[in-house]
Amino acid sequence: MELDERPILYSYWRSSCSWRVRTSLLWKNIDYNTIPVNLLVNEHKSAEYTAINPMQEVPTLVIDGNTLTQSLAILEYLEETHTEKPLLPSDPLTRAKVRSLVGAIAIDTQPAQNLRILKYVGDEKSQDWAKHWITWAFEGIEKQLSSTAGNYCVGDEVTLADVCLVPQVFNARRCGVDMSRFPIISRIDANCVKLEAFKLSDPYAQIDCSEPKGT
């Protein structure tokens, strides 16, 4: 029997950060195996998982004999080692615009609805907390996109900004954010989810999905 040397992605189906990496892998046609890590039953805190990811987070990607953590670092690694179908533009200024949007989404927005943050806030306030901060961040991102967007976040080519935006829109809707206030974000999301890599990376297409679509 041949040894399976495909990359291994430790992932949780509804994790935004895992979703970003899934989309990039699929966009670049990198075949990989998934090992689910159920955050709801604290599998990410097990001794076995902590040994490979001391931050007790998903995703973790094992690739090329290396173990990588932090989704943005993984996305950059995939860009630098798998240059086909790039998700960063070659022009330095355009690339900086993409990275600015990536930061606005992945650093300024997503942590507000991170599971461990919501647990600390408490069930009674967690929904309003997430809705407030996502709405606040989307107001700025919508304005930023007004000067960069074409069919996608920056012009008419899919970039890492789109890879990060789609999971965040999913979470915004789950948290009750009024997306009618953000027509550019909504339009870009609608364009992205028609693409095969985004369809296959969708949470409801994952092997560990535990809920019917739309819940």
Automatic annotation (TrEMBL):
PROSITE patterns linked to this entry: GST_CTER, GST_NTER
Gene Ontology CC: one annotated term: mitochondrion
InterPro entries recorded: Glutathione-S-Trfase_C-like, Glutathione-S-Trfase_C_sf, Glutathione_S-Trfase, Glutathione_S-Trfase_N, GST_Zeta, GST_Zeta_C, GST_Zeta_N, Thioredoxin-like_sf
Highest taxon listed in the record's lineage: Eukaryota
A GO molecular-function descriptor: maleylacetoacetate isomerase activity
GST N-terminal domain span: 5-86
Any one GO BP annotation for this protein: L-phenylalanine catabolic process
Alphabetical list of Gene3D superfamilies matching this protein: 1.20.1050.10, Glutaredoxin
UniProt domain GST C-terminal: residue ranges: 91-215
Family: Belongs to the GST superfamily. Zeta family.
Protein name: 7981_t:CDS:1
Organism: Paraglomus brasilianum
